[in-house]
Amino acid sequence: MKRLLILCGGKSAEHEISLKTAKNILKALDRSKFMPILVAVSRSGTWYYFEDETFLEEQEYINDVYDIGLIASLVKFPAYPCLSTQQGVTIPIDIALPIFHGPNGEDGTIQGLLDLCDVPYVGSGVMASAIGMDKDIFKQILGFHNIPVTPSITLTQMHDRPTYTHLVNALGGQTFFIKPACMGSSVGVSKVKDAEELDAAIDQAFHYSHKVLIEKGINVREIECAVLGNLVPQASVPGEICPTHDFYSYEAKYIDPEGAGLVIPAMLDPEITKKIQELSLKVF
Questions:
Q1: pLDDT tens digit string along 10-60?
Q2: Which one, 12, 27, 103, 278, has least CB within 10 Å?
Q3: Cis peptide leading into residue 98 (ω within 30°)
Q4: What structural domains and CATH numbers belong to the chain?
Q5: How far is residue 63's CA from residue 183's CA, in Å, rounded to a whole number?
């Protein structure tokens, strides 16, 4: 049986979503093959090992309350990596499943730590994680390889803020999405349709990231396609997300149980399905 280190929580604004992911994984885990070693990282970055995983069922977030678990850290011994607690408990680790959402976990930081400690882990490596987290850099790389992306501009605090008229002229259209460049789960994302909404949307996005992406809004169907594998990757069947909100917001994803419908597989012409899968593999 493999000892599976499940890492969740974290310091990002997506902390609560990571805990929900951990709960779902624990329910679905094949206990005949994997023994879960549950570690939840608090909002301040403290690692807690939970001997009783059922504690997580009642928690929406993890703060620094020292009686909730054993404070722990990852340690590389000469023979093997392990989880080590302040109380002297050491647990060898065979493989890690990092399920953080957002910065300080999904962006290559935890992947680098696991690499240094010789812990095999599920998911992308340091570079792919870092690139995938930064929408600005990711879009530049896709554009370099002639993979179509939505028209956009990137702001930092050093740039003058564009006016709504400037965006209409530079990007086309009348609707724009303002989003933190380095966040996920639609945290801090706004849909802007007029000049009065623009400054507040940019302020909100800067609250979560040092860079802000402004993208042209495009009225299209939202299709997703997963890719799994390393040297021989495979694309999944495409699925369609059908939000009931104005867009696929944080509320639509995680709060409103009727916020979006999922159609799997998506109702697409076979040739379109093939193109989506080929494009997904190319991006991967």
A1: 988 888 889 999 999 999 999 999 999 999 999 889 999 988 888 777 777
A2: 27
A3: no
A4: 2-131 (3.40.50.20), 134-216 (3.30.1490.20), 222-283 (3.30.470.20)
A5: 21
